[in-house]
Amino acid sequence: MATPWRIAVVGGGIAGLAAAVQLRDHAPADTEVTVYERSDSLGGKLHTGELAGAPVEFGAEAFLMRDGTGGESAAVTLIRRVGLADDIVHPTVGQAALLVGGELHPLPRGTLIGVPGDLAAVAAVARPTAEDDVDTGRPLLPPDADITVGELVRARLGDEVVDRLVEPMLGGVYAGRADDLSLAATMPALTRTARIEHTLVGAVRAAQAAAPRSPGTPFFGTLAGGLSTLVEAAASTSGATIRRNATVRALTPAGAGWYLTVGPNGDAEQVHADAVVLAVPARPAGRLLADVAPAAAENVGDLAYASIALVTLALPATELPGLSGLLVPAGEGLLMKASTFFTTKWGHLHRPDGLTLVRASIGRYGDEAQLQRPDGELVDTVYRELSAVLGAELPTPIATHVQRWGGSLPQYAPGHLERVASARATLRAQRPTLALAGAGYDGVGIPVCIRSGAAAADEIITALKGSGR
Questions:
Q1: How far from chain centre, in Å, is Cα 457?
Q2: Is there a contact between 341 and 320 (Cβ–Cβ < 8 Å)?
Q3: Which residue of 189, 300, 417, 423 sits 20 to 30 Å from the alpha carbon of 291, by its own alpha carbon?
């Protein structure tokens, strides 16, 4: 009689938990799944806290409702699966602003992460060099080529479009710079159409047409109880054994399976598993792979990460502009790169006493020295900058919170997707019972991480069935 599969999921972020749910749903019913999380809490950058008696996200704030084809996103699918669909809420205010020349302007709509398909729509904040976006008779990108976002957009539409639109949007997602980030990894839809279209404006329009959005359809969502409720529900639904404060320090092949070295040096234990989903950031993954799959380790282990800090202010009843928040280009010379007006953006956070929650994001890749300031200094700087941007001194905060996320946002250099594909091909050929999942490989954002975790689980199931287990 065959023994039940024993599968280890290393990493208790949303990618690892999504893998555990997928294993619960599609592996044999008696499969034993254990999630190993090095910290004392699950969810990674999904972390709902409390400030001045109000729930507030100290990490990721929202998820996309639709995927790149216009279908339901993986986040919504998982939320339905774990029974939280009725808790999905949408922004009540969707218009954001862009700070240009010290003044707030409505963020132009209809761009693709800041790249316009209609040049007139961005004229108030940037002057595109339309004369450079000419049809040369060939596609913008050769097959399989990858360049930085900045290289393509600067050449076609000029510096202002990059510096005032694209980079602030990329900075809000990746804390990175357009001149460093891979087009293929950060803008896959635009990359696909750029291999066909002859102009950048044409490529943007084609990408937008490929994923039509019905008027009035919400773009973003979150959960009324906070995104930590998704973490808790996914962990419960998976039926997995959850081990917190359990650092996996080494992986050792054991026939077709694995031994995991778990726990502190000097007091570690050896745990056997038939297969492993490695759902940790790329650098620790590279260290775990170094001895067992060196070629794969080399392809993923050098990925750089940016650090950020999120500063939240709880203010007494405060009149804010009717905006969801604002973006700040680096050229404006401010410490904060973005701000979200939580209690304006999300109607479910309104309170009878008018408590106002505002969050600012700090940190760009390569500028980590700014994050070395003490918490109090970050709070004071954000308070002063927000007051100046809004044109009036804000009331003294009732409470504040600084959440630091060190090394949290991957910086995909050109060729990233090819390197990840090579690493995975190596593992399939040499170590098929080991699969990679998470933002370090497939992209940031809750839906992408969930999809990555589910795909890794599917690979493990296929490998174990193929081995006759």
A1: 20
A2: yes
A3: 417
